[in-house]
Each structure stands twice: as structure tokens, then as C-alpha cells.
Amino acid sequence: MRIVRSPFKILLVSVSLILFVAFSVVAQPGDPAVDPDVPITGIEILVALGGMLGVKKLIARKKSN
Fold first, then answer.
1. CA–CA distance from 9 to each of 3, 15, 18, 22, 44 (Å)?
2. Above 60 in pLDDT, residue 17?
């Protein structure tokens, strides 16, 4: 069996290997001291109230028709 070694294939394998090694070396775990729980802020409350108001208006519009 004959192995074909074209310059393009060698370059492609070399660049792929270098990128894989570079990204795996840079990949580090996150900060373990960060608290993953985020409290609900005012924006989320306003979005929820706006959604409830929109649903209320849609129900009122359907009842009037």
C-alpha cells in the first residue's frame, strides 16, 4: 500500500495538530469560587409583569370579540 504525502495534506495535519494542542493547553476550568446562583433582579420582574399584562390584554380582547 502506497501512502501519498502531498504538501497540502502535511500542512493540513500540522495546522490541525497545532491548533488542537494550543486550544487544549489554553482551556482551563472556571473559577470555583463563583456562586452559580444568581438572584432575580428588577429587570426579570419587569419582564414577567409585562408578559402577564400582555396575556391579560389578549384575554380581554378575545372576550370582547
1. 11, 10, 14, 20, 52
2. yes
> Which residue, 65, 63, 61, 41, is CA-closest to 53?
61
CB burial readout 9-30, b (16+ within 10 A) else e? eeeeeeeeeeeeeeeeeeeeee
CB hemisphere CA count around 17 (13 angstroms): 6
Tens digit of each residue's pLDDT (9 = 90 or more) over 30-42: 666 766 676 777 8
44 pLDDT higher than 90 = no
DSSP state of 6: -
* Integer Cα distance of 7 and 46 in angstroms: 60
CA distances from 53 to 41, 59, 63 (A): 19, 10, 15
Q: Given this model, what pLDDT does residue 20 score?
A: 85
